Amino acid sequence: MLDLGRTLLQSIERSPRATALVDGALRWSYADWALRVGAVQQGLARAGLRRGDHLLVVMQNRWEMATLHWACQFAGIVITPLNWRAKSEDIDYCLADSGARALVCEPAAEAAVAGSALAAQRIRIGVGEVQGATIAFKEWLAAPCEPIPHAVADDLSLMLYTSGTTGKPKGVPRRQRAERIAALAHVAQNRYAISERTLGVMPLYHTMGVRSLLALALLDGCFVCIPKFDARSALAAIERERITHLYLVPTLYHDLLSHADFAQTDVTSVRKLGFAGAPMHDGLLQRLDAAFRPELFVNHYGSSEIYTFAISQNAVAKPGAAGRAGMNTRLRVIPLVAETPERNAAQGEEGQIIADLLGDEAFEGYHNRPDANAKSLRDGWYFTGDTGYVDADGDLYVTGRVDDMIISGGENISPVDIESVLSLHPAVDEVAVAGLRDERWGQKVVAFVKTRAPVAPDALDAHCRVSDLVNFKRPREYVFVHEIPKSPVGKVLRRKLVAGEFEQAAPMPPTPPLHPKEKPDETQ
Hints:
By secondary structure, this protein is α/β, with parallel strands linked by helices.
């Protein structure tokens, strides 16, 4: 099987003059980019890094980051990227955990690196004007040369760190063969064509960003870097570069649609949309379909550990459905109380989603975390921690996380269905649902709402009453907020809502009192 270095060589050899990389005014063909990748590969070797070494990288989605990623694939160095907003203690932890011999950083991460005790003991490669760097990245570029593949498909490609919303982040090592197969499946399942052009906005420390980078190289395509997401610059790049497809988390789609420039931006070149990383509520799904009129709208459900769990290629036709198992995956839904993979949940029964670890896209276990392996890897299956059910058509619906399950009055309630219903109210911009402690019910369902127009709680309650939402799932309280707290890649952080870590918005104006014959519902 081809390794990733030879995979990039395919495009370099097939289409040397095709535009491969864009970053602002920088525009490189595959032939141009190859010489820079080779130069960085040689620079890494001169710095003393060898095949199998880890290289910690704390950078935005700039051309240097994309170039470094490919140079590591040729050299067999395990690129270990972190969020560029990482704190000093995060850098210390990941340097110690990965055993990285060197790190690369840019000015945006300079202060955090300067505050890291372990970073001071490592080779420090500075991109741009970085104080305290022991090597300047730009010096490597003075000697352009062709890259030479030294790695094989069984070598580790990279190690991603999970978001760590509970406890320390976990390292997810992935081999080059698994990365290449995942990219091939991504191309097939999203029906990408030769010479596609994509917006490189999903961070390259996240599996979605890496997948976009690799998939475009399979297609002689163009990767347009967006170092730090900004809706205005992203919209300008879509129009200027004639972007053909987008692959984003729902939050970024929301921000694009909500920006004042969207109405004046020519987005007709975008023919395919894909999303992952979090559920997309029905309201946003409908708005995107109306705005882009895409030929294909893909709901991709997966993780860092196993890139693809399930794929739906027509997200609008069946909102909320994650579809069927991906082409390299086997899935099951087992009862929530099950400890082993043998028994499937009944049709429509909510359970835990698990995936076969023999799938071609799967990882082989967490780095230095036997505790996490014992919890998540059982009898050859990966226990995702996600909840869901399979409907009568055989389609999977993802309803949330096991840890997010609300237990109210003895009933198990997942937030996603409630959020989807509320998202369809015209005054609702964004919504997240969480369970708050309640003496009577154990937990009560609370909806945290960011609005786009004035609306009162009883109007939202009336909206839920006329929907198909069962009565016991209706929110018992509505909290209006300025923003829904999210992770850097757009996942809702419900724990912050439960902990009260949000900025409450002014209450909405009251609505007229109930008719004398009407009484508020006191029961579930």
